[in-house]
Amino acid sequence: MAEEKKEETNKEEVKPQEAVKGSAAAAAMKKKIAKLSIQEVEEKLKDVEAKMGGLNSKYAQHLMDRKNNIMNKS
């Protein structure tokens, strides 16, 4: 019985390195579209076009709206 409890607790532990990598990736992914710079918007549009095969998604449309808003402010 004691061995079973040890195995269960070992499964639940998260390695510190994985937690750091995950939080850094999560922080990068959680940046709001409204806070993106023009360079970041263009990078994300290229990624979306390559991964999703076009710019028809709502996410891509929001990125394009952000790009237009930045361009109009200048």
Rg is 20 Å
The gross shape turns out to be elongated
* Helix-residue proportion: over 70%
**Uncertain regions: pLDDT < 50 for 5+ in a row?**
none
Number of helices: 4
Compute the average pLDDT: 80
Q: How large is the share of residues in beta strands?
A: under 5%
Question: Which descriptors would you attach to this protein?
Answer:
elongated; mainly alpha; 74 residues
Question: What does the secondary structure layout of this molecule look like, with pairings?
Answer:
Blueprint: H1 2-12, H2 16-29, H3 38-52, H4 58-73
Overview of this structure, please?
- The protein is mainly alpha-helical and 74 residues long.
- The chain has one domain (8-73).
- Helix content is 76%, strand content 0%.
- The protein has 4 helices and no strands.
- It has helices at residues 2-12, 16-29, 38-52, 58-73.
- The longest helix is centred in the last third of the chain and has 16 residues, at 58-73.
- The model has no long low-confidence stretch (mean pLDDT 80).
Nutshell version of this structure?
This protein has 74 residues and is mostly helical. The protein has four helices and no strands.
